[in-house]
Specification:
about 65% helix; homodimer; three-stranded antiparallel β-sheet; DNA-binding; mainly alpha; Arc Repressor Mutant, subunit A; 6 helices; 3 strands
Chain lengths: ~160, ~160
DNA sequence: GGTTATTGCTTGCATATGCACATATCGAGC
DNA sequence: GCTCGATATGTGCATATGCAAGCAATAACC
């Protein structure tokens, strides 16, 4: 196995390369569509995950599980949307170690106003991939996330088929 | 459509969220396996893409197409492996704007020695996803990359089916 | 062959990501 | 109620990623 065989094997088989490349391309598409909202795709995702919690609030640990994101990354990613006034960060009353992100009214509004822009990107991607391609990708990604340990609730219920 | 509906729609449908989450999880797996090699998954991918070129050299523009990576990102990602002595960066003799990354002997060696570690991650992922899950993911990602404009040669030939 | 448009890349700025380590808090035993 | 291990998070460091603006070299056009 010389270095050229190694390179060919990587190019042909590596799922890390593939998953990252696809994520980059898709993210650029969504980021472009979201430009008018002042949010990046990552930030909209984070806002949405927070909105899913009771009273529009989620403890960081839960966000970490839902998003499969390191808690240290989460700490910093929250700063941008906190600085923008979209969320506030408080402590849990029952466990003072736990920090809870809570949507502000501005956050709620931003989420609603951003959705149509998200949808433009979403529709554009569906057109690009085709109905079947999008469906296959969606399923394959969910299957992989489940296998790699995404939190229950972070995904739609498993297909009983 | 209130903010909660918006959040539920994002959680259920967003392919940007899904592709990024999966890429994160997979990358952590590969990075952990590659730790002993001193390379990150991204760097191994880059090294591999360079190795595929004639004489183990690729112009940056070509790398950008293969990897679907912004040229500005490429500039910086090359620095780490250049500093590590794994590649050299020169100019094309025929067009002095063009920069060409070329594998050094150390780069070739590193690629070969890293491959078994890559393979450990690869095998682990295949076990985790199952044969069918891995195959589905691989195909879906390649289909998406093709649709989103990956360079020919950056992917295996299209399935004639 | 000189002007202009295009191309290839770099830099400045901002966010995203993760690991190792440090800190604060909690819970279990004693 | 003190100690110790476990848990939740923050910080320092490093890389990854992309856009906008700039620079240098080439190509296109007249």
């Amino acid at each position: 196995m010389d270095h050229l065989d190694a390179a060919r094997l990587l190019a042909a088989e590596c799922l890390c390369f593939r998953s990252r490349r696809t994520a980059r391309a898709i993210t650029r598409l969504y980021d472009a569509a979201l430009r008018p909202t002042g949010l990046q795709a990552t930030q909209l995702t984070l806002l949405g995950a927070i909105a899913l919690g009771d009273d529009g609030a989620q403890p960081m640990g839960r966000l970490s599980d839902i998003l499969a994101l390191e808690i240290s990354t989460l700490t910093r990613n929250l700063r941008a949307i906190e600085a923008a006034g979209l969320v506030t960060i408080g402590r849990s009353p029952t466990d003072r170690r736990v920090r809870v992100a809570r949507l502000t009214d501005a956050g709620r509004t931003r989420l609603e106003t951003a959705l149509p822009h998200w949808n433009r990107a979403h529709e554009a991607l569906l057109r690009t991939l085709g109905e079947a391609g999008a469906e296959d990708l969606h399923k394959a990604l969910d299957t992989a996330s489940r296998a790699l340990g995404a939190a229950p609730g972070a995904l739609p219920p498993a297909d009983p088929a």
